[in-house]
Design goal:
Number of strands: 4
Order of helices and strands: HHHEEEEHHHHHHHHHHHHHHHHHHHHHH
Oligomer: single chain
Radius of gyration: 30 Å
Structural class: mainly alpha
Distance between the termini: 53 Å
Shape: globular
Strand order of the largest sheet: 1-2-3-4
Length: about 525
């Protein structure tokens, strides 16, 4: 997977080098970026490969071109088109790499900010703005004054709650982001609050106007999910600089707004808690004792609050009290499995393998129940895919494959692909055959290349499949199925001869012929296949 082969630092460095050649105030350069973005978004970048920090790709323009993008030294990149560096094709490949790494938004934001800085420079030069003037208020309180002002303007224009909810994400949020402070160290935190405020307004709208659950699932989910990703991105950026002295008061002032998102709403609890957890783990970690006191006091007043229970568990996790967390999760049976995933992901990301085992045991105990609950299939698949990803990383780091295999067995059928590949890789053919039976696969479901590989490497596993395939085709009782059955029989004969078990073949074949002697079409196909003639 491309994202695993390329470090984000390489992508960011390459993007910075390319930006040096593109002026955001130059109209020609603006068009160049737009064309490159259009090529990427239309899916015209393909055959992408990476080797030694060089990304090679094809771009389908009016004429197809070949691009070589050097991540370590961008000016050494090349394109088969005659245009000067950087051309639109190279930019399209760069955007593809950025998107694969989850960084495309940051590149475009940096480009837009450069455009704004250019406009500011022109205004300052013209004397319309005094040098050093404070264009943006810099306290958290001032940000929220601005947020409420913009929201009030929007809400006065729109009466429909559905329009208001969609406009909050499509119009309000981008507008708030454009009003970010000029101080670079404040921007990630400002963006987090812009996302928190937008999400708060959208959820408040849902509560006040009783928007249908169908609308929430079909329309709102994508907006909420996008805002969650934006806030998480801001938290990741801020994680490095959170101890900056200039941010101390801002972080302290941020706490009430983070709490409010978690506790003041009812829809989208999973997404709200994920945001709360991420911000505390990555941004507000130094204020944990203060939060612990607040949560303990709040739980006394609202002991049944699931939101506060989750907040309390998050504090315990951050303090390393995994046993307490898992014991409390177990009280809820499988219900808490999705809410726990980010904690498990953090343990794997930090390679804290000494904390791994209890969490693994928790998932093996409850994942089966979770998958049998009446939940959407996409949710179950997301959970299983996430767990497989974490368990694979653990296995790669520690060499312990048994944990992954055991978990895949418990997560069937959603883990079938991974489990199937693992069993073949380990040559566990007995278990593999059992898995095929459970899944209901027939021999024709497999590619010819796979069948040939099995015939060569594991004939003892393929022979039972062929026997079963012959019976299945004969039961279908049509000419096409009889032809397939004969093909399987010819392969079986070849394999039995190779295994020096021709007597077993002859006994089996005579039995097949005798059992189905009334199937005239089948008998004819046996003759065409020269199987009866050989007897």
């Amino acid at each position: 997977m491309l994202a695993r082969e390329i470090k984000k630092e390489q992508v960011l460095s390459c993007g910075e080098n390319v930006l040096k050649y593109l002026s955001p105030t130059n109209e020609e350069h603006q068009q160049l970026v737009k064309k490159g973005l259009l090529l990427y978004r239309q899916g015209l970048v393909f055959n992408v490969k990476v080797s030694n920090a060089v990304v090679s790709a094809s771009v389908q323009d009016v004429t197809p071109v070949k691009v070589s993008l050097d991540l370590d030294y961008a000016p050494m990149s090349s394109c088969s088109c005659p245009k000067a560096y950087p051309c639109r094709h190279l930019l399209a490949v760069l955007f593809y790499v950025y998107a694969t790494s989850g960084l495309l938004g940051s590149f475009l934001e940096e480009w837009k900010r450069g455009e704004e800085r250019g406009k500011l420079a022109k205004l300052t030069e013209a004397g319309l703005i005094k040098k050093g003037s404070d264009l943006k208020l810099e306290s958290v309180e001032s940000w929220y004054r601005l947020f409420h002002q913009e929201w009030n303007q929007l809400s006065h224009r729109l009466q429909s709650p559905n329009q208001l909810v969609q406009s909050a994400y499509r119009q309000l949020y981008p507008k708030l982001k454009r009003s970010a402070p000029w101080k670079q160290e404040l921007k990630p935190l400002y963006f987090i609050h812009a996302g928190l405020f937008t999400l708060d307004r959208m959820l408040t709208c849902l509560n006040e106007h009783h928007v249908s659950e169908d609308y929430q699932n079909q329309v709102m989910f994508s907006y909420v999910n996008a805002l969650q990703e934006e806030v998480t991105s801001g938290a990741n950026q801020l994680r490095v600089n959170r101890q900056s002295f200039s941010l101390e008061s801002h972080l302290h002032d941020s706490v009430p707004y983070v709490r409010e998102l978690l506790t003041n709403h009812s829809p989208f609890l999973f997404e709200r808690f994920s945001i709360y957890r991420t911000i505390w783990l990555k941004v507000l970690v130094d204020l944990l004792e203060e939060e612990k006191t607040w949560v303990e006091e709040s739980v006394k007043e609202h002991p049944q609050s699931l939101e506060l229970t989750l907040a309390s568990l998050n504090i315990a996790f951050m303090e390393g009290r995994d046993k307490d967390v898992i014991d409390r999760l177990a009280d809820f049976d499988a219900m808490m499995v999705p809410y726990s995933l980010d904690w498990f992901g953090d343990i794997v990301e930090q390679k804290a393998w000494e904390r791994f085992s209890p969490w693994k045991d928790y998932y093996i105990q409850f994942i089966g129940q979770f998958l049998h609950d009446e939940l959407p299939s996409y949710m179950k698949r997301q959970v299983v895919d996430f767990l497989i990803q974490q368990l694979e990383e653990y296995a790669d780091e520690t060499g312990d494959m048994e944990v992954l295999i055991e978990a895949c067995h418990h997560m069937l059928p959603y883990s079938f692909g991974t489990y199937n590949a693992l069993l073949l890789e380990r040559e566990s053919y007995t278990d593999w055959l059992d898995l095929q039976d459970v899944a209901g696969f027939v021999l024709e479901d497999y590619e010819t290349s796979f069948i040939k590989r099995m015939e060569k490497e594991a004939p003892h596993a393929l022979i039972p499949l062929l026997h079963r395939a012959v019976q299945q085709r004969l039961q279908e009782k049509n000419r096409a199925s009889y032809k397939q059955a004969v093909r399987h029989l010819k392969r079986l004969k070849r394999m039995y001869k190779k295994e020096k078990k021709i007597d077993v073949w002859e006994s089996y074949f005579q039995k097949i012929v005798e059992q189905h002697k009334r199937l005239r079409a089948f008998q004819e196909e046996l003759k065409k296949g020269k199987l009866l003639d050989d007897e």
